[in-house]
Design a protein that fits this description.
alpha+beta, 3 strands, binds zinc ion
Amino acid sequence: MFCSAPVNHPESRRLVVELTSVYVACDDCGRSSVLRMPEIMMASRKGVQTYQELCQRFRCAECPPLAPAFRNLTIRPTWLDDSSYGRVKDDLVN
Ligand SMILES: [Zn+2]
């Protein structure tokens, strides 16, 4: 279970519904992509609940499939509360 970097990340237990986007880059071939809210919501509907579970699903489309522990991915999440979305949420409340 503690075999890939995202698992040891302090934010790994946070919920995918708290994410606004996730930047994923492959360190092997340099390919990068950004997962946006529609895709995150889709994953959530398919049963992915935590950021950790989401990270385990990421893989590079260019490189051969590898177990999560052997993927060289750089994953950078953006959370609702550390972007301008936090302010938008406050506006909706007020
Ligand atoms: Zn790759």
